[in-house]
Amino acid sequence: MMDIIENWGTFESIVAVGILLLFSAFFSGAETAMTGASRARMHALEKEGNKRAALVNKLRDKKDKMIGAILLGSNIVNTMSSAIATSVLISIFGSEGVLYATGIMTVLLLIFSEVLPKTYCLIRADAVSMAIAPIVQFFVWLFAPLLGIVTAIINVFLRMVGIHNQTHTDTEEELRGAIELHEVLDDEEDSTQAKRAMLHSILDLAEMEVADIMIHRNNVETINVDDPINLIIDQALSNAYSRLPVYRDTPDNIIGVIHARGLLREISNAGGDMARVDIMRILTDPWFIPETTILFDQLQAFRERKEHFALVVDEYGAFEGIVTLEDILEEIVGDIEDEHDMTVPGVRAQPGGAYIVDGTVSIRDLNRAVGWDLPDDDYATVAGLILHETKMIPDTGQAFSFYGHRFKIMKRQRNQLTLIRIMPESSLAAVQSDFSRVK
Questions:
Q1: SS (HEC) of the chain
Q2: What is the mean pLDDT, run by run of 10 residues, along the chain of 439 residues?
Q3: From CA 431, how far away is CA 56, in angstroms rounded?
C-alpha cells in the first residue's frame, strides 16, 4: 500500500484523500441515521409495505453487526486518508509534514466527516436511514468475516473481566423516557403535560390491579331483593348510578345486577302496576372478577364481553366492591364527570385548605377529589394509612405529620377511626405565617 502511495502524484493523492473523506462522511452519517431513526415510524412504514423501512428494522435487529461494519469501514477509510495525506506532506515538507498532516486531517475529519454528516443525518434520520439501508447492508455482508474475528476477540476480553456481551433494553422504560422527552412549546405546555400524564397512565394499566381503583363495598349502594317492590323501585331510580348489585339475605350474596333502563322497561310492560313488576325477570347475571386482575386485562375483558360493570371478590370469594369501565378510563384521562356525578361522600372542605374526612374514605378517591398524592400501596382507606404509619390505634385529639400532610383524629369509635382532619403542611405554614403577621 505504501509503495502505491509513494508512486502517486500529488494530484492523485489529493483526489484519493477527497474520496476517502466522502466515504468517512458516509459511515459517520450512517451510524447516526441508522441508530437515530424513529423505531415507531419505521415499524409503521413496514406495516404499510415499505421495503426500505423493513430493511432498516432488519439491520437494527442485529445492531452489533451493523454498528461493527460501520465503525470498521470508518476506521479503514480514516486511516487510509491520514496515511496518504501524511505521505504527500512528508514528501513536500520533510519530517514537518507529519505535523501538517495531523492538523489538516484533524480539521477535515472533524468538520466534513463527523460534525457535518452527523448533524444532517440527525435532522433527517428517518429519510436518510431508508435511503442508505441497502448500502449499509452491503458493507455488513462485505465485512462479515472480519467482524466475526473482531467480535470473537472482543468477547474473549470481556469474559476476562467478567462482562458478558449481551444487550438488554427495557422497552417500557425507553417508552417512558420518550414520553418525558416530548417537546413542550410555550403555548402548549398544559396540553403537553396532559398528554404526558395520559400516556404514562396507559402504561400504568399493566401494573395496577382492580383492587387499586375499585369502589369499596362500604361505598357501594346495593339493593335487597326481599325489600318491598316500591322501595326497590324508589332506590333504583333515585340514585346516581344506572346499575346496582342486588343481594339476598346478606350483601355478600350477590344474585344479580339491576339496570335502571331494564327496570323502566319492566314498569312500562306492567302498565304502571307496581305489583306486576318482577325484579327477578330483569336481573342480569353478576360478573365476578378477582381483585388481583390487572387493569389492562380487565379493560380488554370489558371490550370482549361488551360489559361496563363487574363485581370484585377476594381470594375467598367475598364481595369487595365494584369496578366499571368508567373507572378504568378515568385512570387514563382523569375524572369524567356528568350531571349525575356526586362529590366524594365523606370528604368535606374546611377553611384554610383543610378537609374533614371519614376514615372509610379510600385514599384513591381522596387523591382524585382534592388533587393530592397520598400513597395507597399497603392500605386502601384514610384510617388504614394512619394505622399503618403510626403502628397504633390513636386516641381522639392526637395529631401526626407524614407525606406532607397533618392528620388529626377528630373522632374514634372503639377501635375504628371514624373522622380525621387533614391539612397539607404547605397550607398549615401559610396559615401560621398569616397569624404571625396579625400578631
A1: CHHHHHHCCHHHHHHHHHHHHHHHHHHHHHHHHHHHCCHHHHHHHHHCCCHHHHHHHHHHHCHHHHHHHHHHHHHHHHHHHHHHHHHHHHHHHHHHHHHHHHHHHHHHHHHHHHHHHHHHHHHCHHHHHHHHHHHHHHHHHHCHHHHHHHHHHHHHHHHHCCCCCCCCCCHHHHHHHHHHCCCCCHHHHHHHHHHHHHHHHHHHCCCCEHHHCCEEHHHCCCEECCCCHHHHHHHHHCCCCCEEEEEECEEEEEEEEEEHHHHHHHHHHCCCCHHHCCHHHHCECCCEEECCCEHHHHHHHHHHHCCCEEEEECCCCCEEEEEEHHHHHHHHHCCCCCCCCCCCCCEEECHHHCEEEECCCEHHHHHHHHCCCCCCCCCCEHHHHHHHHHCCCCCCCCEEEECCEEEEEEEEECCEEEEEEEEEHHHHHHHHHHHHHHC
A2: 54 84 90 86 88 89 85 89 85 83 87 88 90 91 85 80 60 62 52 68 80 81 87 80 88 89 84 79 90 90 89 89 86 61 71 86 80 81 90 91 91 89 76 46
A3: 61
